[in-house]
Amino acid sequence: MSKEKLIRNIDALKRAKNAVILAHYYQDPDIQDVADFVGDSLALAQWASEVSADVIVLCGVHFMGETAKILNPEKRVFVPDLNAGCSLAESCPAGAFEEFINAYPDHIVVSYVNTSAAVKALTDIVVTSSNARQIVEILPKDAKIIFGPDKNLGDYINKQTGRKMLLWEGVCHVHAQFSVDRILDLKRKYPGALLLAHPECPEYLLVIADHIGSTSALLRFAAKSDCKQFIVATEAGILYRMRKENPDKEFIPAPPEDATCACNECFYMKMNTLEKLYLCLKNETPEILVDERVRVDAIKPIGRMLEISELYGL
Ligand code: 13P
Ligand code: SF4
Questions:
Q1: What's the gap in Å between 39 CA and the centre of ligand 1?
Q2: Could you tell me if 141 and 96 lie in one domain?
Q3: Same domain, 79 and 92
Q4: 144 is in which domain, residue-wise?
Q5: Using one digit for the tens of pLDDT, what is the confidence trace for 34-93?
Q6: Ligand nearest to the CA of 116
Q7: How do beta strands 250-253 and 108-112 pair?
């Protein structure tokens, strides 16, 4: 089917089934263009909790679909490809995480949203990269905290807040593999360019970054800045939105260690395609289902995050 026909059919099915399409900034441009909302993990959770449509198609990875289902269980939630996982979420199996936190019963458990529903069910407060620092800062100064699963984000927040959170040793396969040497080469080639980095990147990269933030924070910074060139150290899908919002500026993807691979793309995010989105709307599969006992426990820490974010305008 041609791309134009796929887009027409997606639109028709969306209206016929009273569906809404939510997409993450890392999705392919074609998917971002047909989506009703494109945002970061926090915005996707906020939108999902408020959706009145009968069906949510979450074009992102599995944990994003689960979060939408947990928040809005009356709705049917689909993800175009159920195999669209997340290396971070997978680095933190619920059983092993439970053992870890059980060893520190006096600790508050703060989990990044990039986790399974089962891990969220073991958590006190969920955070995203848009609100993690602020939420940790709100916790009592003497609170003992476990943070999982992203050790780079946890380490970054520890440095920002002066806390000494215990960290789970997980990383994202995209953010862990940028090449500092190749980025420094780019900085020499574009001496005026600013380096933008997601806090999932390792410290050795964050220390040379000009601005660190979630996907939405990096977008805001790029739009406000007077600078005309940026090297972007996060998943390359975001460049589409950056270029669209700032046609007068140049965005250069930060290169991975391995010059022969497209490792600055998240292969999980890229599993969703326009065709799979069409088939998912048409056939109403694959559907995200969450065990009700897990959901009831997992909604509490997500709800806390949403309440705090609303209170502080995050
Ligand atoms: P954001 O919350 O910044 O959108 O990040 C999501 C993600 O998966 C980063 O790799
Ligand atoms: Fe997960 Fe990394 Fe992909 Fe984000 S970019 S969804 S953290 S694997």
A1: 10
A2: yes
A3: no
A4: 88-172+295-312
A5: 999 999 999 999 999 999 999 999 999 999 999 999 999 999 999 999 999 999 999 999
A6: 2
A7: unpaired
